[in-house]
Amino acid sequence: MTRLQRLGGIVLLVCAFLLLVILFIPTAQVEGVLRRLLARQGYSFTAGAFGKAFPLGIIARDVTIADGRGELLRFDRLDVRPVIIPTLMGAPTLSVDAVIGAGTAAIRWRWGKPGGVSVDIRGVLLEQIPFFRSVAGATVKGTLRGEARLSGVPPRMNGTVKIQVRGGQLADVKIGGMPLPAVLDETIQGMIRVKEGRGRVESLTLEGSGLYARVSGEIPLSATAPLELILELMPKADFLEKQKFVFLLLFKYLDSPGHYRLPIRGALAKPSLF
């Protein structure tokens, strides 16, 4: 028997073992383990349907993830599978494919050394992400497209995150209790460069018919690490007139005529204005 044949036999045995494990562990037990893992982090998990996927994997439908504040994420379908070849080659890799309305999200997570994660989001409607309403109390709409390419293992990852939102609408947005202007039909796009677990906003802009906004500074990947961001607002005269009450509240942040500079501190989970 050649070395290649022996290797092939080992691969078949490992795959057969994994298949038997998936087949003979009751679905309810797998779902229970997932619920307990999330509960330890303070989250709840519910699914309208939860079952095994052939040959290896889990499929769940009508999935909701929530915490004490309410629903955070909702998926029409979640498909979780190990990626067999890199896993057998010593680089365990997990594939997560999600359907959110008409949009999709694909995650490939490789742990160990070298580790890394890639994320691709296409056509996700922001209004179908309940986090914005339940946590931020904001009305957020638009079509999201994004990607992330990160290498290493948390919390010291490196790479880039890119986002783009078309037809963006923001209303009832507040930072530390301070209201921000409502906007319609905006384009939001930007890139964050991640180095050693901290993100540097290289370009993040919002541009539409009445307002140009720009965010710069550092943003951590952790929800509790400190923020060091600057939000600049440059409204056109007619836009400012329509929302002059909001800009009166922001008067202390007027840096020069037509230019507002807002320092954002606190943490990602609870930002505040300095």
Describe this protein's structure.
There is one protein chain. This protein has one domain (3-198). The chain is an alpha+beta fold and 274 residues long. The chain is elongated, with a radius of gyration of 22 Å. The chain has helices at residues 3-24, 27-40, 84-88, 131-134, 237-242, 244-249, and strands spanning 44-52, 58-67, 70-82, 93-100, 103-110, 116-125, 139-151, 158-171, 174-175, 178-179, 183-195, 198-207, 211-220, 228-235, 254-256, 259-267, 270-273. The model is unreliable at 1-8 (pLDDT under 50). It has a 15-stranded antiparallel beta sheet that branches. A two-stranded antiparallel ribbon has the order 9-10.
Give a concise summary.
21% of the residues lie in helices and 53% in strands. It is α+β, with helices and mostly antiparallel strands and 274 residues long. The chain has one domain.
Secondary-structure blueprint:
Elements: H1 3-24, H2 27-40, E1 44-52, E2 58-67, E3 70-82, H3 84-88, E4 93-100, E5 103-110, E6 116-125, H4 131-134, E7 139-151, E8 158-171, E9 174-175, E10 178-179, E11 183-195, E12 198-207, E13 211-220, E14 228-235, H5 237-242, H6 244-249, E15 254-256, E16 259-267, E17 270-273
Antiparallel strand pairs: 1-2, 2-3, 3-4, 4-5, 5-6, 6-7, 7-8, 8-11, 9-10, 11-12, 12-13, 13-14, 14-16, 15-16, 16-17
Distance between the termini: 71 Å
Q: How many domains make up the coordinates?
A: 1
Which overall shape is indicated by the principal axes computed on the Cα atoms? elongated
Indicate the mean pLDDT: 87
What is the H/E string? Answer: HHEEEHEEEHEEEEEEEEHHEEE
Number of strands: 17
Major beta sheet summary: 15 strands, antiparallel
Radius of gyration from the alpha-carbon trace, in angstroms: 22 Å
Q: Beta fraction of the residues?
A: over 45%
SSE-based structural type: alpha+beta
Number of helices in the DSSP assignment: 6
Low-confidence stretches: 1-8
